[in-house]
Amino acid sequence: xxxxxxxxxxxxxxxxxxxxxxxxxxxxxxxxxxxxxxxxxxxxxxxxxxxxxxxxxxxxxxxxxxxxxxxxxxxxxxxxxxxxxxxxxxxxxxxxxxxxxxxxxxxxxxxxxxxxxxxxxxxxxxxxxxxxxxxxxxxxxxxxxxxxxxxxxxxxxxxxxxxxxxxxxxxxxxxxxxxxxxxxxxxxxxxxxxxxxxxxxxxxxxxxxxxxxxxxxxxxxxxxxxxxxxxxxxxxxxxxxxxxxxxxxxxxxxxxxxxxxxxxxxxxxxxxxxxxxxxxxxxxxxxxxxxxxxxxxxxxxxxxxxxxxxxxxxxxxxxxxxxxxxxxxxxxxxxxxxxxxxxxxxxxxxxxxxxxxxxxxxxxxxxxxxxxxxxxxxxxxxxxxxxxxxxxxxxxxxxxxxxxxxxxxxxxxxxxxxxxxxxxxxxxxxxxxxxxxxxxxxxxxxxxxxxxxxxxxxxxxxxxxxxxxxxxxxxxxxxxxxxxxxxxxxxxxxxxxxxxxxxxxxxxxxxxxxxxxxxxxxxxxxxxxxxxxxxxxxxxxxxxxxxxxxxxxxxxxxxxxxxxxxxxxxxxxxxxxxxxxxxxxxxxxxxxxxxxxxxxxxxxxxxxxxxxxxxxxxxxxxxxxxxxxxxxxxxxxxxxxxxxxxxxxxxxxxxxxxxxxxxxxxxxxxx
Length: 671
Known about the structure:
alpha/beta; Immunoglobulin-like; Rossmann fold; 19 helices; about 20% strand; NXPE4_C; Cadherin-like_domain; CPED1 protein
């Protein structure tokens, strides 16, 4: 018997058995009302255009040529879904009074749930709410910029994406074998949904006291927040292992008039975050949307500490292992990946007491590290890892030698934040201290280097935050840097260092040559920092590279290096150094930063980010006696410096930069 105003007792008074009976009743009611027969509706045809799939009766999908959904079709679906939501949660069970809704439901359920896996009314309600939110977003995007919206592949969901919401309630990742062939994003989205759906109540509150609160935080993979979530507690902490490089974070407001946004006032309510080594901060803003202009009423902060590689101390009984690329991201599929045992012949060759100095900054090499077993990277002492070029070594200059090298020189940097990190490393090495630091996004000049004997300037390029038609060209940015850095000699006393993550190409090198010839600076020393690993993680808000695009970076890098040497420029190959350690990035959405500047005052610094850079990172175990390690360690632990450039991978290629910067000076001394 069905009553018109069907309801249950208050959930607080119901026991587990009552809840179980309620769910069974809902499920049986769905099966009773929703027949197996399905009509072909305009709604399915419209969905096929979004998903780019043809859905057969058995629920499988087949890709077709991508098509675009018209605004009329989107608005029609929004009207359907709004009607559906307006019926109310329990009246969803009895749609006979609205034939359009009944047809809509049959078609929708048959398409997304051919195996009858719907777990509960809450799951269905969440599915419909998510569809409505997606369609409203799509129509908003379409009205704003229809051609651009139509070109976005990620605006279209596939049949498999819808099925993320429909996983049976009683299955969980704990019961799933890690070797099962289930896409990670399938599990992650279901986790977030399941966590959200199992909340006692889904409906928001109009109580003013809840205006600044969030109801819950959901994460995938699930984080162990400390303390446990409470709407009145605003700060949380979590730790994650080294191999967790991203996390999806979302939140839900407590109040009906509030919205949540991640990181900024207009940010999303759910986003995928990269997790750099060390500390990562996520800010959740709560806004009051009851006014025409929403205002921020509170903020929550989650601090996530990502651990370094698992490492064992160096034992006497160890073997040396080498690697160029990680098996998690094979840049060169035809070459080996992961740790490989090093032969006795190779170890004998690199342990010679007399070793020639590398003649270029792109010498082939590999990372070597001591391990108990090369088949298990958890048995390695990663503190002792070193970059070892084949057949030569890069000298590490002592402070007096480096100061003599840069004395009287004017050193100009142009590039992005990775280029800026190398500049600050140079300043700290020369001065033995870093007195000032800022994330410069303009032109900045430093006159206090090497007791005023060295001038350094920096120009940020490209200015990606500006509109393309307002953004200064590389040629204009370079000309401006040269003008701000004058007077400049047309000799190697003037140095130009150019590079970044992945914006640089051979065309920029031709522009450099053209501008320098025009400015009568064709004889200055030019050093090209090649591209580096980055943008390889699926992160919201930035363009992420596919695996094929990441692999293509190898060829792009070779073109840059060869073109630079053809023009007579020095090079520093940062791609071959970063590609094997792509998981060891530090903070930043791009996953491309292998340095960060930290406060070096021990009394103020968290123990998590205290680091003493070891000589082994640059020199290798076999060359420490030749390369004046004490000076490098003294620089790294200078307690008088208010700031310190941290990052062992950045240290490696920055030291190679210094070796190229001073190569001609060393040749003059030797002759």
